[in-house]
Amino acid sequence: MAQKLTLVSHTLCPYVQRAAIVLAEKHLAFERIDIDLGHKPDWFLQVSPLGKTPVLLVDGTPIFESAVICEYVDEVTPHPLHPADPLARAQHRGWMEFGSALLNTIGALYSAPTDSALAAQATEIRRKLAQVERALDAAPYFAGAHFSMVDAVFGPVFRYFDVFDAVEGLAFFTHTPKVRAWRAALAARPSVRQAVRADYADLLRDFLAQRPSALGQRVKAAMRDAPAGAPRGAQVRSETPC
Fold it and tell me: So what's the pLDDT on residue 123?
């Protein structure tokens, strides 16, 4: 694949991360351009009909929507991340959609206006993780030794919990040991680690602390209690990060 690849990105967007992971797994060089979704440049709106990231420019031709980007990259390169069997491939695509649904619930969690609403969304996340637990029957990845497209989707999902774990009262993985092991394996994967900036966790904490939500208040309190001189990222605007 000799084309010039440019990934139009937002610093915190999990959907961008899945595209970056797939590109890295395929050993494809690409340029990454971060934009401010609070002030979308005109050129971006011309290549992103939905006004969302990611967009992959292939020699200047835009492809939008993360699932479409990932499928395209997988189709035009060797060593597919999808299973060869059509039924298994369809099942994997279903779990990719499940990962997107889990991201939506995470968004509802960090936007919940009250403690009771926060608790309800946390319960829903635990329910979804229990469903994933029942689906896992191999290790270290979703389908065993082969890193798949489902892994590329769930790596960014699990990354949120690196910050959530520090919030008191939000224990998500107590009863899902297989999910815990999968999360750890993905966190150690170079393509997953390198899909974000080194200060991602600080940026995410800043983003959450700016939100007028129950979780935002808890994160803000935890940041006030952090030791003096603790590292902090540059602030990110509080718009939805995608």
Answer: 97
Q: Which helix (H) or strand (E) element contains residue 63?
A: strand 61-64
DSSP codes of every residue in 95-142: HHHHHHHHHHHHHHHHH--SHHHHHHHHHHHHHHHHHHHHH--SSSBT
Q: Looking at residue 144, what DSSP letter applies?
A: B
- 242 in catalytic set: no
Token pair listed for 184:
């750890």
219: which residues sit within 8 A by CB, 6+ positions away?
163, 167, 205, 208, 209
Lookup: tokens for 67: 């699932």
Closest CA to 150 of 201, 80, 208, 238: 80
Q: How many residues does the chain have?
A: 242
Using CB atoms within 10 Å of the CB of residue 21, give its burial: 0 to 12 exposed, 13 to 18 middle, 19+ buried: buried
0.90 cut: is pTM over it? yes
Tell me if the bond preceding 78 is cis, omega within 30° of 0. Answer: no
Q: What is the pLDDT of residues 127-142, one digit of tens each?
A: 999 999 999 998 999 9
pLDDT value at residue 74 = 97
Give whole-number Cα distances, 147 to 68, 105, 130, in Å. 19, 25, 21
Q: Which is catalytic among the residues 12, 13, 19, 56?
A: 13
